[in-house]
Specification:
Layout: E1 2-9, H1 13-20, H2 23-29, E2 33-40, E3 43-52, E4 55-68, E5 73-82, E6 87-99, E7 106-117, H3 128-149, E8 168-169, H4 170-196
Parallel strand pairs: 3-8
Antiparallel strand pairs: 1-7, 2-3, 3-4, 4-5, 5-6, 6-7
Helix pairs in contact: 2-3, 3-4
Length: 197
């Protein structure tokens, strides 16, 4: 499953680059994610918790980062498994930074390629996943912006980071997406009925 996203951050490219390459900082901005240990050579042990209804899947695995500042490009790759549901996940995320609409802004392009196997694979199909990806990206951008805003000019956080202990609620996201789609469907249906009468 390939997902492409782009967004703009209200911070200079140098600062955004530094923090996107700080795997612990990124994990603090992504719901359900945490870094367990540093394996060296830009490799880490990580954990991602995903809640789907009453089930909570905890993916434990490895993450690697390969960044090339000469073209402002980075690739994060990883794989993990949840022992409870026997689900497995692997994938990569490529990000490219470009100048934003102002000197103090950065445009970010992201292409993710994600593969799921096991019971959770049923959630990797269809356009609904794109909507869920939009919501996860929006949450990440909001958290990333907020954490960057906490940084002093010296680059040290004024507020202590709060790790994302709550699992990513995929079931809640799915329900929110379905509700929004149903509202749009009925609004369009009744709008057409009114226009036809």
């Amino acid at each position: 499953m390939k997902i492409e996203k782009s967004f703009e951050l209200k911070h200079p490219r140098e600062q955004v680059w530094g923090k996107l390459n700080d795997v612990r900082f990124v994990a603090e901005c992504l719901p359900g994610a945490s870094i367990v240990s540093d394996l060296g050579e830009n490799r880490y042990k990580g954990r991602m918790s995903v809640k789907v209804g009453p089930m909570v899947a905890v993916f434990n695995g490895e993450i690697a980062i390969d960044s090339r500042k000469q073209d402002w490009t980075g690739v994060v790759s990883g794989k993990g498994a949840d022992s409870g549901s026997s689900s497995r996940a692997s994938g990569s995320m490529t990000y490219v930074l470009a100048d934003g609409t102002s000197p103090a802004a950065t445009h970010v392009n992201i292409v993710s390629d994600i593969n799921l196997a096991g019971p959770l694979a049923q959630f990797s199909k269809g356009a609904i996943v794109q909507d869920i990806a939009n919501r996860i990206t929006a949450a990440f951008v909001t958290n990333f912006e907020s954490r960057l805003a906490e940084l002093s000019p010296a680059g040290e956080a004024n507020v202590a980071p709060s790790p994302q202990e709550e699992p990513l609620d995929a079931g809640g996201l799915l329900w929110a997406v379905l509700r929004a789609r149903l509202r749009t469907f009925f609004r369009g249906l009744f709008g057409r009925s009114s226009a036809g009468s």
